[in-house]
Amino acid sequence: xxxGDLLTTLNFQxxxxxxxxxxxxxTMCVREYEYxxxxxxxxxxxxxxxxxxxxxxxxxxxxRAFIF
Length: 68
What we know:
The protein is mainly beta. The protein has one domain (12-67). Helix content is 15%, strand content 47%. Strands 1-4 form a two-stranded antiparallel ribbon. Strands 2-3 form a two-stranded antiparallel ribbon. The longest helix is centred in the first third of the chain and has 10 residues, at 12-21. It is elongated. Residues 2-58 form the Nucleotidyl transferase domain. This is Nucleotidyl transferase domain-containing protein. It comes from Vreelandella sulfidaeris. Pfam families: NTP_transferase.
């Protein structure tokens, strides 16, 4: 399953072979991509801040391509 507006050079046969070779309910495709968030980011639980990271670096982006 994948988004209809996704342009990709993904090898679907290799993806299916990978999925069948590993015991998982689903396989999600990700693309390695670094993105520097330009602001500090917090995580919270209710009204309590549990962590704060200044300008974190994000490393992966979901491609919206899955096999179930």
